[in-house]
Amino acid sequence: MFKFAAVVALAGALFSGAAVAQPAKPTVVLVHGAFADSSSWNGVIEILRKDGFPVVAAANPLRSVSGDAAYVSDVVGSIAGPVVLVGHSYGGQVISTAAIGHANVKSLVYVAAFAPEAGESVADLAGKFPGGTLSGALAAPVKLSAGGVDLSIDQAKFHDQFASDVPAEQAALMAAAQRPVTEAALTEKSGEPAWKKLPSWFVYGTGDKNIPAAALGFMAERAGSKRTVVVEGASHVVMVSQPEKVAELIEEAAK
């Protein structure tokens, strides 16, 4: 009788433990956009890691949509288990392409990001609604020996244009470390986007001068956003100035 009771108790403990065991959390892959780098996600990464999420901040090459998406696709393909794919700005176009063909990508999050339809480019969408002032804030283009040009934001105009709600000292560091993007990448047309098949979430600020809020709202509605968070007064780098709001939405998408 004692042995039987002990076996029953042990079995109960094992099944009870299995019942409360939590599945592994998905890996969050963060893809920065033009004029930024992976460090722009630092505040968001800190929160996600604290909450138990594995995180990879991919170094987006910013050379071409097809090439950049292929690289991010390779990163996603190296990850075992589910993935939440997050893109900022031009990175939104990249994740819209990179997610295709990956069954482990469960959701997309667009952070002040482009979500083009097939046949659209970043340049097309940036000019679709009034209010963007990026063209007047660009530095002189850098001619590339292989052809084409690199574009960056004039460091003296970076704070006001790109990161107006970030402290000036921090914005100056971001301006000096910004990653340029090729003009060809901004004009390359998208293929069929992943947001047509995957659930998506959007967050952006009303103070965005790179992509007008009207354009961001239009893309969110068109993509059937599960939830759209609009942060009053936030700049184009809402993930830098408001990492809590961005991380919260990513964690919602991860569920």
TrEMBL record:
Gene3D superfamilies: alpha/beta hydrolase. The keyword NADP does not apply. InterPro entries: AB_hydrolase_1, AB_hydrolase_fold, Sec-Metab_Biosynth_Hydrolase. Residues 28-248 form the AB hydrolase-1 domain. This is Pimeloyl-ACP methyl ester carboxylesterase. PANTHER family: AB HYDROLASE-1 DOMAIN-CONTAINING PROTEIN-RELATED, ESTERASE_LIPASE_THIOESTERASE DOMAIN-CONTAINING PROTEIN. It comes from the Bacteria. Keywords: Signal. Residues 1-21 form the signal peptide. It comes from Rhizobium aethiopicum. The lineage of its organism: Bacteria, Pseudomonadati, Pseudomonadota, Alphaproteobacteria, Hyphomicrobiales. Pfam families: Abhydrolase_6 (PF12697).
